[in-house]
């Protein structure tokens, strides 16, 4: 039992926490765990300190057997002996322990200590090796409804198990606060010393290596083919021009995030087609081809890239809160008018759903309007199969990478041992593979952003219910079905919010988990913008024909633009009055329900007018901005960048040795880095996975 007293001595000797200060009880937004600090009797800590200091550690009965393993006691004895002799390795061990920091009233409850100092404190001659551990306990909820975990970092001997360490902490807190917190071994998380690749990891590595090898081999063969067919290939300038000889068309495809339509000349031999599909030369040309024609919906490029940037911006702010030493300062951010752009960044996803609907409606009607076209089972099978095959390869690579590989590539005091996906996902990921993750519980997701792709593919599978009547010139039936489904969408949102008080404030409400699961994720509550997109795509097909004059009178166009812009501003900033007095509410429950029910529909109609006006030459300067040619390659890479950004952002946050400090300018700086990094890594995913498989799809599903 005395070994526990010695452990307390270690902590007291070097923590500098022997002060009798009390925490003020009346502090704005102070979490309840701060007030509980006043229940700690510091005199108990002092008594233990002097008792431990007076012990003669040379006595044989000092490390008597007990609930702590003998190997753990022996290592702590070595550590104690090193401290009395002032050996540097032992001082490093204790110095690496976390100390109570400033900023407790701002939510600073993650005390990480010194991760690298702990690992550097090994003593080979004494056979003492450390490991970094954290004590984790769920703190009381903040008044902002944000729940965080109390985390305390410390350095422990390698031979001390989690059960040993939990027993020690139980004793410390029992003596310190006269209360047993019942720590168990699951509350102690120690960093893995080594990770050996398991079978799934090796399968992933071999598969990706083969894929990269095929791309490089195809690129080399393509280069040789160009060299042999060019009589002036010895001239490097001529060779460069020969590489760029093809007039490559990159039409928009029927997918919300613009997976590149890998154009392949089907007149070539099939082996040559496959080589071109995998070749870096061909694929880079397709990404950076700026040629367009009137069939392209160019305004979608700008909306797509801006929306992706908005997603990354919101995620940068939102996720960094949980890795910061001042999370309660985020409440002050909410009170700033312009910060509503970040706090209401959810509309960026509705823009993606809208674009998906526009492309689906426009291209379906365009394909079925061809002369002598017949709507057959084969056509519909290809319709469904194409969407699944366009989305899946890149998604599966990122899904498997996140589940099977991230546990081997990261380290740090905040990096989870299981990687960036829960351990259960290694055997239970069928919902993510089958695009059903939006029906999983919040804590059952394996790849956080897959809920969006699940909704998108479900919308796409549902769309023919509306599109087939429209394609068969049964316009009344098609529009009627669209309106009925849209009414069902609005009614489902209204009833869910009305029958579950606390959900009307969205993720900022007292019932945010229910809102997220049953309103934010479900297809019947999120399909509104997609339905609006189908209608706009249908109208655009007819209004973009040369024979149709879609020019709107200047005065009416100006009125429409002002209405659309004002409605967009209303959707984003309407809740600012709430945020100013958060956590109180300015609006009534019914007003919030009405806002949540209709805001996404209003957003889709407003952005939809932007698209319609720009594509019918009524957009003016806005059309010029959204159709800027620089957006073309960025839009082609947006799907891969979207898939990459989630894992990349969490990897960046969790591998830090220090907590972040929330500051607006610093967060903008991080956002810029996350945006660029996502596109750089997304480019690799695009050229090595997305475009080769899309090329194969074009070849074999003609």
UniProtKB/TrEMBL annotation:
Membrane-crossing segments per the record: 201-227, 305-324, 344-365, 388-410, 457-472, 479-498, 523-543, 555-577, 593-613, 634-653, 668-689
InterPro entries found in the cross-reference section: Acyl_transf_3_dom (IPR002656), Nose-resist-to-fluoxetine_N (IPR006621), O2_lipid_transport_reg (IPR052728)
One Pfam assignment: Acyl_transf_3
GO molecular function: acyltransferase activity, transferring groups other than amino-acyl groups
Keywords: Membrane, Signal, Transmembrane, Transmembrane helix
UniProt KW Hydrolase keyword: no
Top-rank taxon, per record: Eukaryota
Domain named Nose resistant-to-fluoxetine protein N-terminal: residues: 69-192
Signal peptide: 1-20
Keyword flag Transmembrane: yes
PANTHER family associated with the record: ACYLTRANSFERASE 3 DOMAIN-CONTAINING PROTEIN-RELATED, O-ACYLTRANSFERASE
Stated name of the protein: Nose resistant-to-fluoxetine protein N-terminal domain-containing protein
Organism: Brachionus calyciflorus
């Amino acid at each position: 039992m005395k070994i526990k007293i010695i452990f307390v001595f270690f902590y007291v000797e070097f923590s500098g926490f022997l002060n009798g200060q009390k925490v003020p009880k009346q502090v704005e937004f102070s979490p309840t765990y701060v007030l509980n600090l006043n229940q700690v009797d510091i005199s108990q800590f002092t008594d233990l300190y002097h008792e431990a200091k007076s012990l003669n550690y040379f006595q044989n009965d000092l490390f008597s057997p007990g609930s702590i393993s003998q190997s753990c006691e022996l290592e702590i004895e070595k550590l104690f002996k090193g401290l009395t002799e002032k050996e540097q390795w032992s001082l490093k061990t204790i110095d690496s322990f976390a100390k109570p920091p400033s900023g407790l009233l701002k939510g600073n409850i993650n005390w990480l200590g010194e991760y690298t100092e702990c690992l550097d404190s090994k003593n080979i001659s004494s056979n003492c090796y450390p490991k970094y551990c954290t004590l984790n306990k769920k703190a009381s909820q903040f008044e902002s409804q944000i729940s965080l975990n109390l985390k305390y970092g410390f350095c422990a001997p390698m031979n001390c198990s989690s059960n040993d360490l939990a027993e020690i902490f139980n004793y410390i807190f029992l003596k310190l606060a006269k209360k047993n917190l019942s720590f168990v071994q699951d509350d102690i998380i120690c960093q893995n010393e080594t990770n050996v690749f398991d079978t799934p990891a090796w399968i992933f590595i071999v598969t990706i290596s083969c894929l990269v090898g095929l791309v490089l081999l195809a690129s080399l063969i393509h280069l040789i083919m160009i060299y042999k067919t060019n009589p002036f290939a010895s001239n490097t300038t001529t060779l460069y021009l020969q590489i760029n000889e093809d007039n490559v068309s990159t039409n928009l495809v029927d997918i919300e995030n613009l997976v590149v339509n890998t154009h392949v000349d089907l007149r070539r031999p099939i082996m040559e087609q496959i080589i071109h599909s995998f070749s870096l030369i061909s694929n880079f040309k397709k990404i950076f081809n700026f040629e367009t024609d009137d069939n392209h919906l160019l305004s979608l490029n700008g909306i797509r890239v801006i929306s992706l940037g908005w997603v990354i911006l919101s995620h940068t702010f939102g996720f960094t809160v949980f890795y910061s030493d001042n999370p309660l300062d985020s409440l002050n951010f909410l009170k700033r008018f312009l910060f509503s752009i970040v706090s209401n960044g959810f509309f960026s996803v509705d823009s993606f759903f809208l674009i998906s609907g526009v492309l689906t409606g426009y291209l379906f009607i365009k394909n079925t309007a061809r002369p002598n076209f017949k709507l057959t089972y084969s056509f519909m099978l290809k319709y469904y199969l194409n969407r699944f095959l366009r989305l899946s390869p890149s998604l599966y690579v990122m899904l498997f990478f996140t589940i099977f590989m991230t546990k081997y590539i990261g380290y740090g005091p905040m990096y989870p041992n299981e990687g960036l996906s829960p351990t259960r996902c290694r055997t239970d990921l069928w919902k993510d593979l089958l695009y059903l993750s939006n029906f999983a519980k919040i804590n059952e997701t394996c790849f956080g952003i897959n809920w969006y792709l699940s909704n998108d593919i479900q919308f796409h599978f549902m769309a023919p219910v509306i599109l087939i009547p429209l394609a068969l010139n049964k316009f009344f039936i098609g529009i009627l079905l669209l309106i009925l489904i849209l009414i069902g969408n609005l009614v489902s949102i209204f009833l869910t919010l009305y029958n579950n008080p606390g959900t009307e404030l969205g993720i900022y409400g007292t019932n945010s988990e229910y809102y997220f699961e049953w309103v934010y994720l479900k297809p019947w509550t999120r399909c509104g913008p997609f339905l609006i997109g189908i209608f706009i795509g249908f109208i655009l097909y007819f209004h973009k024909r040369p024979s149709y004059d879609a020019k709107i009178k200047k005065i009416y166009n100006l009125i429409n633009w002002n209405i659309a812009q004002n409605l967009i501003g209303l959707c984003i900033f309407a809740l600012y009055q709430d945020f100013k007095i958060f956590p109180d509410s300015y609006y009534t429950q019914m007003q919030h329900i009405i806002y949540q029910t209709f805001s996404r529909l209003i957003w889709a109609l407003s952005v939809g007018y932007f698209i319609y006006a720009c594509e019918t030459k009524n957009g003016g300067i806005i059309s010029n901005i959204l159709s800027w040619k620089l957006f073309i390659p960025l839009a082609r890479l947006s799907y891969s960048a979207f898939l990459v950004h989630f894992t990349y952002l969490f990897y960046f946050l969790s591998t830090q040795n220090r907590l972040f400090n929330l500051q607006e300018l610093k967060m903008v700086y991080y956002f810029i880095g996350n945006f660029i990094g996502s596109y750089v890594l997304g480019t690799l995913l695009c050229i090595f996975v997305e475009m080769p498989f899309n090329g194969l799809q074009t070849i074999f599903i003609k």
